[in-house]
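[Meeting: bench + compute handoff]

Bench side (C.D.) handed over the final construct sequence. Compute side (W.E.) agreed to return the predicted structure before the next meeting so the bench team could plan truncations. Sequence as handed over:
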Amino acid sequence: MITLAVAGCAISGGAPQAPRQPVQAGPIGPVIAAPGGGPPIECRGLPQERCREVGALGDGQGGIAERGIAMDDIERVIVSCEGAPCTSTDGAFRIDILAGDGSTIEIGRGGYGAAVQP
């Protein structure tokens, strides 16, 4: 499992430890612009500043290239709060991508502050 620390956040990539349900394609939450022109980011239950930090794809985050997923095939990054509530100081989340074919793929999980990933 790969762990990457980003602005006080820990993000885990690779296969989930337990079977997990796919997220709905949505959009369900607000969609914001990604820094650096990456795919748009949908925030589901996280404050937008935290959502933008963890949802920006770059530097191999989530093993996108290793999974054979082309960046131009990603319609949207979906960041969902897990173990609510997610505040600006504490929260656990998962990161999925919405692919061009409408499927969703989990690419990571993490937490910030004192939150523990469920």
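W.E. noted at the follow-up: Residues 64 and 70 are 7 Å apart (CA to CA). C.D. will use this when planning the next construct.
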